[in-house]
Design brief:
Radius of gyration: 22 Å
Mean pLDDT: 88
CATH superfamily of the largest domain: CBS-domain
Low-confidence stretches: none
Distance between the termini: 26 Å
CATH architecture of the largest domain: Roll
Largest sheet: 4 strands, mixed
Number of domains: 2
Strand content: 15-25%
């Protein structure tokens, strides 16, 4: 399965001159945690996460007045807080490679590019949904966990026995080692 099969197409973006307050409001309204940042020509120039925005927001214990906080947040722009060196993938990237990139770099989402054009985004939420689907977690049935030797044909033998007993395998997951 490829990223292009499961990505969110036409991702919600934010302009590089948008304020922290505008970006936080957009994230709240759309229930998302990251936004690709685009320039006036629509080219992606960075990415900003909810955590990035919260880091530059005043603490609840601040001595600023409730009138000063919105003013301050309106002055900080995306170009000032965004990550510029964005790790991206293409639509042809295998999902497991995208998941590895996200895990290795401790990031929650990857913009999907077609050349220099932003065409989608794949996030940790998308990956969890795929994981649940692949393991049949939303299907009713019996879960069977086996520790089997690493031998040629062993899975075929086990699935044959399940079929002979009238069973049907909806999902199959394997791991390496114990």
């Amino acid at each position: 399965m490829l990223v292009g099969d499961r990505m969110t197409v036409r991702p919600i973006t934010v302009a590089e001159d948008a304020s922290v307050d505008e970006a936080l409001q957009l994230m709240r309204n759309e229930r998302i945690r990251r936004l690709p940042v685009v320039d006036k020509h629509g080219r992606m120039v960075g990415i900003v996460s909810e955590l990035d925005l919260l880091k530059v927001s005043p603490s609840p214990a601040t001595s600023l007045s409730i009138y000063e906080i919105p003013y301050l947040l309106s002055k900080i722009k995306m170009r000032d807080v965004m990550t510029r060196d964005v790790i991206t993938v293409s639509e042809d990237t295998p999902l497991e490679e995208a998941a590895r990139i996200m895990a290795d770099n401790k990031i929650g989402g990857l913009p999907v590019m077609r050349g220099d054009k932003l065409v989608g985004i794949i996030t940790e939420t998308d990956m969890f949904k795929i994981f649940l689907e692949m393991l049949g977690a939303r299907e009713s049935g019996v879960r069977l966990s086996l520790l089997v030797p690493e031998e040629k044909g062993i899975l075929a033998e086990i699935s044959g026995k399940i079929t002979k007993m009238g069973g049907n395998i909806l999902a199959l997951g394997t791991t390496m080692g114990e």
